[in-house]
Amino acid sequence: MHDILPQDSPVWQLLESDFRDLAHQYGYAEIRMPLVEKTELFVRTIGEITDIVEKEMYTFEDLNGDQLTLRPEGTAGCVRACIEHGLIHNQVQRLWYCGPMFRHERPQKGRYRQFFQVGAEAYGMAGPDVDAELILMTARLWKKLGIQGLQLQLNSLGSLEARARYRDILVEYMTAHIEQLDADSQRRLHSNPLRILDSKNPAMQALISEAPQLSDSLDDESAQHFADLLELLDKAGVAYTINPRLVRGLDYYEKTVFEWVSDRLGSQGTVCAGGRYDGLIQHLGGRPVPAAGFAMGMERLLSLMVEDGVQATAFSPHIYLVIAGDGLASQGLALAESLRDWRSGLRVMVSCSGGSFKSQMKRADKSHAALALILGEDEAQCGNIVVKFLRREKPQETISQTALTDYLENIDEIQRKLS
Ligand code: ATP
Ligand code: MG
């Protein structure tokens, strides 16, 4: 779990605000869910025989004896909230969220125990047009963020029934090659055989690539849905690769699944993953509502952004107010307040708790402010203020405090930053 330090937060803020603007462009509204849910919710939605539920959850008993879990992903809580508040009863809902998720994984680059996701969910729309909308949204985000070289992989998992048929075929194939299965896969052979296709063990890849394909067992409706989606993407000019092995880490998907993958992140290459999960809401006790969504890992996106040279400006004030004299604090604070009243975008940092004039000027310089305002005893008595430019050669000036905002109106450094 990481601290995000002040020098790193600007690029996080950039990603967050770009995603928020994007979501709003498509009509998605923000939902904020609790970080903790009942353990049972994740077991029922994600599935018992999955990496997350089997070995990655932070689960604890609270003082009432309730089993709770730090959320490992956002969809389960989002669906729970929507059912609880009647948000998806006979209505369409487009939602997005952003926040930390928790999984007890082996930490490595691109894989952390607390990591951040942004995600979107669309409820009440069964057609492939929403699947396409979600994909277009993500494609637009890469452009906006300046991330190059992501590849879209698509597959259809078919209906739950089609998957059950395929499961039998797969079990038969895997059983015939049982000596080649690693321990994890042997364990999954009868509990959740599709998950074997998701194995990251290099030794399993040959066997997996020879396995019978899910697409050969697709039901007609899913096949049509998938064909329609591909046509929509073709017409929208979105390139994709069909990956018949793509099964996704969660159990609740059906029909469309997709991932955006980078070849620059090693085995942590998936930056965004999503799909359709029409059966989940009914499974959790709601009325049947079609649903689709995606989630993306923010740390992985950020490392690509930084590699691609995306710059985010670090925070710095426009003005640093030096208070050089005893008993001037209240006049100094009042002056700073009046400047913040004048322009809400203006950033004024006050040198609180004094110190020598020299050390205050050092702090002013370190703050990267464009201007220092100096309130000394003489100025305070006459209602004046000294203006000193910190980033260019220009003689300092003494002006009346009442004329200060008019003066700032004509200072390039301030006006440029405010516009
Ligand atoms: P992986 O196959 O890499 O373990 P996953 O299938 O478990 O991923 P999802 O549950 O689909 O991942 O989560 C969506 C996205 O969240 C992932 O594509 C990835 O970008 C990000 N993500 C998942 N787990 C982590 C983690 N432990 N640390 C950082 N990012 C993560
Ligand atoms: Mg995982």
Topology of this structure?
Blueprint: H1 9-25, E1 29-30, E2 36-38, H2 39-46, H3 51-56, E3 59-61, E4 67-70, H4 75-84, E5 93-102, E6 114-123, H5 128-145, E7 151-156, H6 160-176, H7 183-191, H8 205-210, H9 220-236, E8 241-242, E9 254-261, E10 270-276, H10 280-283, E11 291-297, H11 298-307, E12 319-324, H12 329-342, E13 348-350, H13 357-366, E14 371-376, H14 377-382, E15 384-389, E16 397-400, H15 404-409, H16 412-418
Parallel strand pairs: 1-5, 7-8, 12-13, 12-14
Antiparallel strand pairs: 2-4, 3-4, 5-6, 6-11, 7-9, 9-10, 10-11, 14-15, 15-16
Helix pairs in contact: 1-5, 5-9
The structure holds adenosine-5'-triphosphate (ATP) and magnesium ion.
- The total count of helices amounts to 16
Amount of beta strand: 15-25%
Strand order within the widest beta sheet = 1-5-6-11-10-9-7-8
Oligomer: single chain
> Superfamily at the CATH H level of the largest domain?
Bira Bifunctional Protein, Domain 2
Helix fraction bin: 25-40%
Which class of the largest domain in CATH terms? Alpha Beta
Q: What would the average pLDDT be, to the nearest integer?
A: 93
What structural class results from the helix and strand content?
Answer: alpha+beta
Overall shape: it is: elongated
What composes the largest sheet? 8 strands, mixed
Question: What does the radius of gyration come to?
Answer: 28 Å
CATH architecture of the largest domain: 2-Layer Sandwich
- Note the gap between the termini: 38 Å
